[in-house]
Amino acid sequence: MGQIWDFLIVQPIALLLRSLYQLTSNYGVSIILFAVVAKLALLWFAYKGKRGMLQQQRLAPKVQELQKKFGKDKQKLQQEQAKLYQAEGVSMFGGCIWMFIPFPIIIALYGAVRQPLTYIMQLSKEAVEKISEVLEIEAGAGFYNELTVANMLGDPVSLAKAQGVVSEALHPVNFNFLGVNLAEVPNFTSLIVLIPLISAGASFLSSWLTQKFSGRPPAAGNSMMMMYLLGPGISLWIGFTLPAALGIYWIAQSVFQIPQEYFLTKHFNKVLDAEDAQKAEREERRKAAEAAQKEEDRQRRAERIAAQNQKHKPKRYKLQNKPPAPKEDKEEE
To answer: What Å distances lie between residue 247 and 177, 201, 209, CA to CA?
Structure first.
């Protein structure tokens, strides 16, 4: 399974990152360009996810009504919610399932930046071991610290030593970006600590603006707090446990997320407003048709009742050859 993951996911991503580095000769810029490519590649998933999320937000008032009505009966509540989502043509998981698609890319990118000799410089395992030995880099728990070796290859003397023990041509990577070594794990001893902090701030800003763009009232209580802190918390954890290159990627992702969310939200609000207007129009026509049908049924019932009453009404017979009334005698003069 690990070899399949490495072949299908990690190596293609590493190849793309290597190509971007060869194009720009700047490790930080290649990471930012990689974030752009990733955004474009995942745009369709973001498109689907944004539509599902906005649809769920519009159904929130109806869901709350169901919760008030069937709050004590969990099974009935789930059934009614499923009926509501099915009637509205909305997937219950359509807004969140697409959020997990980018994580394999992040994990694969971690593998690439964590092992630059293997994935970016395309060196074999044997070559990595020989270079580590000649540069006197000790293995820790059976795993060679490739970041340390990659940094040392920036020194001409170390590069010459390494080149003498391997047949492959070595093309070291310059990890410096704006005066920061992106191969280092951030700590509080240098300015590199700003990368995870900026990353967390950018993630928070992206989440906050996304909520503002939606035009919907924010979730209350713990759900709102989780929404605002989940992204920044993950980016902060990544920033202080992985090479700084991942922090640059996370910052770029958050920055590019803002215009993407703005335009997608604006687009889908128009689309969903039009769909809601059509649904309301169809509902009005349905109600009008039902009212007309009820009125027609009422008139028919009234006519049927009137006909039945007329049929059972007692007949009145006229007397024939009625004798003439007796004439009064005229008074004699």
So the answer is: 12, 12, 20
What are the φ/ψ torsions at residue 140 (nearest 5 degrees)?
-110, 115
With 0-12 CB in 10 A as exposed, 13-18 as middle and 19+ as buried, what is 270? exposed
- The pair of three-digit structure tokens given for residue 255, joined into one six-digit string: 């920055």
Q: How far apart are the first and last CA of the chain?
A: 143
* Number of other CB atoms surrounding residue 65 within 10 Å: 12
Q: Which of 94, 96, 92, 93 is nearest to 81 (CA)?
A: 92
H or E element: which one contains 268?
Answer: helix 244-311
Low-confidence ranges of the chain (pLDDT < 70): 1-2, 92-99, 138-144, 215-228, 312-333
pLDDT tens-digit readout, 13-45: 999 999 999 999 999 999 999 999 999 988 888
Tell me the DSSP string of 204-245. HHHHHHHHHHHTSPPPPTHHHHHHHHHHHHHHHHHHHHS-HH
pLDDT in tens, 220-270: 445 556 666 777 888 888 888 888 999 999 999 999 999 998 998 888 888
